[in-house]
Amino acid sequence: MKKRAVLPFVFINVAMTADGKIAPANRHFQAFGGPRDQEHLLELRATADAVMSGARTIDLAPVKLDPGSIRYRRLRLRRGLSEYNLRVIVSGSGSIDPQAEIFKHRFSPIIILTTARVGASKLAVLRSLADEVKVFGDKELDFLAALVWLRRKWKVRRLLCEGGGELNGALFQSGLVNEVHLTLCPLVLGGRHAPTLADGSGVPKLEDAPRFRLASMKRNGCGLFLVYRRNKRLVPA
């Protein structure tokens, strides 16, 4: 009998407008979830062994993927976690700005996940930026193999994904998302090219869509904090 892969628990956190957008069409991210949403983000990071984001998000926003202030770092330690979370960047093409803010802060390891379509010279640049660069897949990133490796090599039990839409979409299509934390904001951005919670090719048929159930809902001002949990995990054995 084939042994089932041991994977991290994957949960996504995203703030979304009422029309389903996570950023304007120009993809220059501006936080619109409010102060409580920022607190919520740090509270979730305080439960995660690693925080993962796509390269475009890293390039376009001054993010560090850090655990936040000493308050949240102490919370991590009380939970038996390391003070600082591992940081994971996903880029199938290997196109990451070496001047991105995250590389200026070396408080915890940075891992880059990429594919075999990245040439040797670009790989060398990535390896100069990160603590480890790992190739999974030829043209498209093999997320199942990558997550198995993160669990085995880096002991990642809980993996928080903070987007963007392309990365979220790939995780949903791979059947790897266990939980979604969604902040629904009273804004309408519009724009057919504005990114959504899950971009990419999407599912071809409705019956292929991953199913979730509403686990909790809280109101804060005019916004809603929703938690959805996967009905059934569709990870290959």
Instruction: Look at the structure and give the CATH class.
Output: Alpha Beta
Beta-strand proportion: 15-25%
**Class by SSE composition:** alpha/beta
Count the domains: 1
CATH architecture: 3-Layer(aba) Sandwich
Question: How are the strands ordered across the major sheet?
Answer: 5-4-3-2-6-1-7-9-8
Radius of gyration: 17 Å
Would you report the number of β strands?
Answer: 9
Count helical runs: 6
Q: CATH H level: which superfamily?
A: Dihydrofolate Reductase, subunit A
Order of helices and strands: EHEHHEEHEHEHEEE
**Helix percentage:** 10-25%
Might you state the CATH topology name? Dihydrofolate Reductase, subunit A
What are the low-pLDDT stretches, counting only 5+ consecutive residues below 50?
A: none
Distance between the termini: 9 Å
- Shape field: globular
Give average pLDDT, whole number. Answer: 91
Largest sheet: 9 strands, mixed
